[in-house]
Amino acid sequence: MPLYDIKSLCHACGRFHDILVRVQLARNFEVRAVSDALQEGTLSPSEIATITEVDCPNTGQSIPTKPDQMVLVAVQDINRSH
Ligand SMILES: [Zn+2]
């Protein structure tokens, strides 16, 4: 099953930061908003229940996360040649 990194938009610096959480989903896509994936049932709320904040490396702050500000990004297949 495809593996996805979860990244969150940081309202302190305006960039996406990696939350260091990976999930496996039955569906295949490159990027999708977490809120969309929850709505369509691709992602279950329990899989992101522990994600409440992300550390901002640019400001040193802990930023609260929201589903509509998080995205799922497909992890590139490490076996694929570049
Ligand atoms: Zn930031």
Task: Give the beta-strand count.
Answer: 6
Termini gap: 21 Å
Question: What is the averaged pLDDT score?
Answer: 92
Residue windows where pLDDT falls under 50 for at least 5 positions: none
Bound molecule types: zinc ion
The figure for the number of domains is 1
Number of helices: 1
Considering DSSP H and I runs of 4 or more, what fraction of the residues is helical? Answer: under 10%
Query: Which structural class do the helices and strands define?
Result: mainly beta
Element pattern in H and E: EEEHEEE
Q: Strand arrangement, largest sheet?
A: 2-1-6-3
Largest sheet: 4 strands, antiparallel
Radius of gyration (CA) equals: 13 Å
Name the overall outline. Answer: globular
What does this structure look like?
It is a single chain. With 82 residues, this protein is mostly beta strands. It has one domain. Helix content is 7%, strand content 37%. It has 1 helix and 6 strands, in the order βββαβββ. The protein has a 4-stranded antiparallel beta sheet. Strand 4 and strand 5 (62-64) form a beta hairpin. The chain is globular, with a radius of gyration of 13 Å. The protein starts with a strand and ends in an 8-residue tail after the last strand. Bound molecules: zinc ion. Zinc ion is lined by residues 10, 12-13, 15, 17, 56, 58-59. Residues 10, 12-13, 15, 17, 56, 58-59 line the site of zinc ion.
Summary of the model, kept short:
The protein has 82 residues and is mostly beta strands. The protein is built from 1 helix and 6 strands. It has one domain.
